Amino acid sequence: MLWSIIATGTLALRNDMGAVVLIWFPIGIAVAAFHSISQRHWPKLIAVLFIAHVLTIGVYSGDIARTIAYATSNIMEAAVCAVINVRVLGSRTAVPRRLRHVIGLFGAAAASCLVGAIIAAPFESQIGSVNFARWFMSGMLSILIVTPLSLKLRAVVKRTLSGKRFILDRELVLALAACAALAIIALQAERVTLMPLLIAAMVAMAVRYGHSAIAMTMLTYTAVAMVFSIGGDSPAPFLKADIPQATQVLQSWMLTLLATALPVSAVLLKRDEMQAELVHANADLHDNLMLLNLAEQLTGLGRWRLDLVTREQHWSKRMYRLCNMPVDLPSDPGDVRSYLPEDGEGLFSQYRLHKKTRDPYSFDYIIPLDNGAERVLRLSVLNEFDDDGRRIAIFVVAMDVTEQIEREQALDFERGQAVRSAAEAHKLANTDSLTGLLNRRSTFARLDAMLDVAQSCNSPLSAIMFDIDHFKNVNDTYGHQTGDAVIRQIAELARKQARQGDLVGRIGGEEFVWLLPQLDVAHARKLAERLRQAVEVGVQGSSLPKVTISVGLAHYRWGDSQSELLERADRALYEAKKGGRNTVRRAA
C-alpha cells in the first residue's frame, strides 16, 4: 500500500506537475520492504509488489509490455539490493557501523540499479546515455536515502503502536528547516556557488544527529530541488544548463555528498561505541578504586614484593599478621617457607604457574591459625616485566576474606532455601494439586502467550478440550476418592500423549485443556483421537473403573481471542457429548 501511494505520487509529480524526479522513491520503499520481513516470506513479497507495480504503473503507461518490464526491473533491483545488503551487514536488521559496510552498501545500490536499468533499457525508446545515467542515479539515491528513512519510520511507528510515547525532536526539525532554507538559497545563487555550504551542513547534521540525519538532510535538499522543477523548470536554477544536464549534475553531486557523509557517520558510530566502552571501563575502574579504598579503611591490606633479580623482598606488618607470622621480623626476612603452610609450596606454585601472566590475577590462600581455625586470604598478584619480557618482580596484595566467604556461604545456603521455597510456592500457585497439571489460571495465562505468538508469527495453534464421560456416576458408584484417582489417571495419560512444548491443564472438575502450538489441525485431530483411544483402553493392571472421554477440537483463526478459541472447542466438545460420547469432534 505504501509503495502504491508513493509511486502514484511520484508519477503524478513527474507526469502531471512536470517536476523533475531526482529520486525514484518507490525503489527505496521496496528495498525497505525486503529488510522489514523474514527472508522466507520474500517470494510472497515479490508477488505482492509485482501486482502493485502492474496496477499502479499500468494506469500511467497503458502499455502492458512496458509495464511488466518496469515491474520486473524495479522488483529485481530491490531484491538484488536486499540480498547484497544482508551479505554485507550480516543480517537484514543490522546498521552500517564500519567503513566496509558503507562501501558495501554503495556497491549493492550500484549493482542493483545497474541490473534494473539494463532490464528496462530495451523498453525505453529514448534511453540514451544521459537518461540511462539519470535512471541509474535516481535508483541509487532512493536506495541510499529513502530506504534508511523508511526503516527508521517503521521502527518509530512500531514503538508508538506498542504504547511508547513518540517525542518529536524539535531541534532536529529546526535544523532540517535551516538546511531547506540553505538549499533554497544555494540552488538559486548564480554569482557565487554556495554548494560547499550544503556539504558542510550535511557533515554537521551527521556529527550532531547521527546516521539517519544524513538521509533526512538529503531528502530535504531533494524536496527543495523538485519544488523548483515543478512546471517544467530546472531543479537547479543556478546551473546554466538544460534540464537533463542540470538533473544529471545535481544527482551526481548528491551521490558525491552521500559518499562524503556516510563514511563520516560510520566513523562517528564507531567512535560512539568506543566512547561507551571507555565510559563503562572508567566506571568499573572507579568502582574498583572505591572498593579498594573501602577495603583499606575497614579491613586493612597486606603487601609483599619480591625482586627476582636481587632476591630482595618487602613485607608489610599487616602482611605478617595476615599470614600468622611474627610481626617482629624485619621488612626483608629472607627465606620464610618455614612459617608458611606446607613450606609455602601452595603459594609459590601459583607464582610459578603464572610466571608469564601479564594481567593481574588472584587466588585464595588458607592460613591455619594457632587455635585450630583457618584464615582465608585473597591474594591479588601482579607480575612486573622488563623490556625484554623477563619477569623481574612479583607484587602481592593480601586481604582477609574469611568473614566474607563465611557470609557468602551462609547467603548461598539461605538463597538456595529461598529459591526452593519460592519454587514450591510458585508450583502450588500455578499447578493443580490433584493432578500436577497447570491450574485454570495458569492455563489461560499460557494460552494468552501462545495466542500472541500465533498472531505475530502467523503460526498454527490448536486447542483440545476434553472431559470424562458420566463422571458423576463414577463418584456416586465408587466414591470421591476413586473419582480423584480416575482424574489423576486421565491427567497422566494426557501428559504422556502431549508433545514437548504442548500444554495440558485442568480447568474444572473433570474438564481438561490440551494446547498444541505449531501443529496444523489434521495432526491435532490425530493426537486427539490417540488420546481418546488411550483413555478407552485404560492402564493395564489398573483397578480403577474404565471410563471414556469426549473431545472437542478447535484450530486458531487469525485474530481469535482466548475466549473465542476455547468457546469453539467447548462447542465441539458439546457436539461430541451430544453425538454419543467417547468421540472427537472438530469445531466448524
Automatic annotation (TrEMBL):
Keywords: Cell membrane, Membrane, Transmembrane, Transmembrane helix. Its EC number is 2.7.7.65. One of its GO terms (molecular function) is diguanylate cyclase activity. Residues 459-588 form the GGDEF domain. It is a multi-pass membrane protein. Pfam families: GGDEF (PF00990), MASE1 (PF05231), PAS_4 (PF08448). GO terms for biological process: cell adhesion involved in single-species biofilm formation; negative regulation of bacterial-type flagellum-dependent cell motility. It is found in: Cell membrane. NCBIfam families: GGDEF. This is diguanylate cyclase.
